[in-house]
């Protein structure tokens, strides 16, 4: 018998940015003329590296022996029971990667690309300091000069990470303009790049910014989803029904989503920082509450007013405290391939406490947004019995203990 050829139209994910560097209408390259050569050079070098088996083999070797990949996919039975009866939750354990989070996957990939391009000087921006630490780590390992731009307000707030970066041999430069936080650090890093493009590689920290960074970061983080897809097939013999990940700039989420993009039966849910409330300035839920606009060289959803003025943001987790988001997520939101929700500070705290108590795993506050959101979905009866669920545990919570103690009114 002939198979029925008539099918409902399948979702087709646009896998690569188009000629203008865009996923649908999002992304692109809104950059000053002075950086066009540097971006063209980066794009060409990355295209070559991506197709070069020697580069991929070198990356794989370091991922295995330095980062500790593959990270485990781990079934959490006691946490599952708390979410809903008869569901199975697995965690992708990026918290077990070297330096305790997924950021090292991208930092390593870009540092190897820099080395291949003959660039000995690495610059990067950092907000909470996590990307700065990951960058300083791989630069130390590869013997590259490392300069980290950080807002002066963040330098004060994140003194432990500043110390880590210095210990790893990096120079930390203070950005003293504007709000003196992440946005300003990014601006300073671009300024440095304009002046030193010949010798310098700008190692960007999340799946945002001008093309080709969203693509580069997505590709280097996709190792998360590629491994997870194989692991869940091994354990369960099928794909999950649902995948959750927290979304700041969007790198850990796109890293686990992308390798499942073609499997339309797998629901993809990004969880943003709902902060103290959904009032303007009290959260960082860009895809939930924002509108399209241009920030840091790309078109994407953005927390802004009608005049394009960017709002202040708040989140209990510094890693989610960003008013923009990567363009591929904006594209996935509009196409309906992924959905996005917000978890409040309190919800994230609850997620952190519940996973700690039920499974002996203290998650990062960022990842805890996805955990808390899942618990609340269960409480609302939104999870079908028999569901197989994957949560990307983007990092470990050690770095957040002082913040958590304060939020719980515990004095240390
Ligand atoms: C930086 C960070 C995030 C947020 O960044 P994305 O680019 O959205 O992944 C999430 N989790 C942890 C542990 C982080 O350090």
From TrEMBL:
Q: What keyword terms does UniProt attach to this protein?
A: Amino-acid biosynthesis, Aromatic amino acid biosynthesis, Lyase, Pyridoxal phosphate, Tryptophan biosynthesis
Cofactor section: pyridoxal 5'-phosphate
**Domain of life of the native organism:** Bacteria
Q: What is its EC number?
A: 4.2.1.20
Tagged with keyword Plastid: no
Q: Which pathway does it serve?
A: Amino-acid biosynthesis; L-tryptophan biosynthesis; L-tryptophan from chorismate: step 5/5
Question: Which Gene3D superfamilies is this protein grouped with?
Answer: 3.40.50.1100
Report whether Transmembrane helix shows up as a keyword of the record.
no
Q: Where are the transmembrane segments?
A: none
Catalyzed reactions per annotation: (1S,2R)-1-C-(indol-3-yl)glycerol 3-phosphate + L-serine = D-glyceraldehyde 3-phosphate + L-tryptophan + H2O
Renumbered to this chain, region (Disordered) spans 1-23
| Domain Tryptophan synthase beta chain-like PALP per the UniProt entry, residue ranges | 68-395
- SUBUNIT field: Tetramer of two alpha and two beta chains.
- PANTHER family linked to this entry: TRYPTOPHAN SYNTHASE, TRYPTOPHAN SYNTHASE-RELATED
What is the stated purpose of this protein? The beta subunit is responsible for the synthesis of L-tryptophan from indole and L-serine.
The family line of this record is: Belongs to the TrpB family.
Q: What is this protein called?
A: Tryptophan synthase beta chain
In the record, what lineage is assigned to the organism producing the protein?
Answer: Bacteria, Bacillati, Chloroflexota, Ktedonobacteria, Ktedonobacterales
């Amino acid at each position: 018998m002939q198979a029925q050829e008539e099918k409902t139209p399948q979702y087709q994910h646009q896998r690569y940015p188009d000629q203008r560097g865009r996923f649908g209408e999002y992304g692109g390259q809104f950059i000053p003329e002075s950086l066009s050569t540097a971006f063209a050079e980066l794009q060409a070098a990355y295209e070559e590296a991506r197709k070069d088996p020697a580069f991929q083999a070198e990356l794989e070797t370091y991922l295995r022996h330095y980062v500790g990949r593959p990270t485990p996919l781990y079934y959490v039975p006691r946490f599952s029971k708390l979410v809903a009866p008869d569901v199975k939750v697995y965690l992708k354990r990026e918290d077990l990667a070297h330096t305790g989070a997924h950021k090292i996957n991208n930092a390593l990939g870009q540092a190897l690309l820099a080395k291949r391009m003959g660039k000995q000087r690495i610059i990067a921006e950092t907000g909470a300091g996590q990307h700065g630490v990951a960058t300083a780590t791989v630069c130390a390992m590869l013997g590259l000069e490392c300069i980290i731009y950080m807002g002066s307000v963040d330098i004060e707030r994140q003194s432990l990470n500043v110390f880590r970066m210095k210990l790893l041999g990096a120079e930390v430069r203070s950005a003293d303009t504007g709000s003196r936080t992440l946005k300003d650090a990014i601006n300073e890093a671009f300024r440095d790049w304009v002046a030193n493009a010949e010798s310098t590689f700008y190692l960007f920290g999340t799946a945002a910014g001008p093309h080709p960074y969203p693509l580069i970061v997505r590709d280097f983080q996709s190792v998360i989803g590629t491994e997870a897809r194989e692991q869940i097939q091994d354990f369960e013999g099928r794909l999950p029904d649902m995948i959750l990940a927290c979304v700041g700039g969007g790198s850990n989420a796109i890293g686990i989503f992308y390798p499942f993009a073609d499997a339309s039966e797998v629901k993809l849910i990004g969880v943003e920082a709902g902060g103290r409330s959904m009032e303007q300035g009290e959260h960082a839920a860009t895809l939930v509450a924002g509108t399209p606009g241009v920030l840091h060289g790309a078109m994407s959803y953005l927390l802004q007013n009608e005049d394009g003025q960017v709002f202040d943001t708040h989140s209990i987790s510094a890693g989610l405290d960003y008013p923009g988001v990567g363009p591929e997520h904006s594209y996935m939101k509009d196409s309906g391939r992924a959905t996005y929700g917000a978890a409040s500070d309190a919800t994230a705290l609850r997620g952190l406490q519940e996973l700690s108590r039920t499974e002996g795993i203290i998650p990062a506050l960022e990842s805890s947004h996805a955990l808390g959101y899942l618990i609340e979905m269960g409480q609302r009866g939104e999870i079908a019995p028999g569901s197989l669920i994957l949560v990307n545990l983007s990092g470990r919570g050690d770095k957040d203990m002082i913040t958590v103690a304060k939020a719980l009114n515990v004095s240390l």
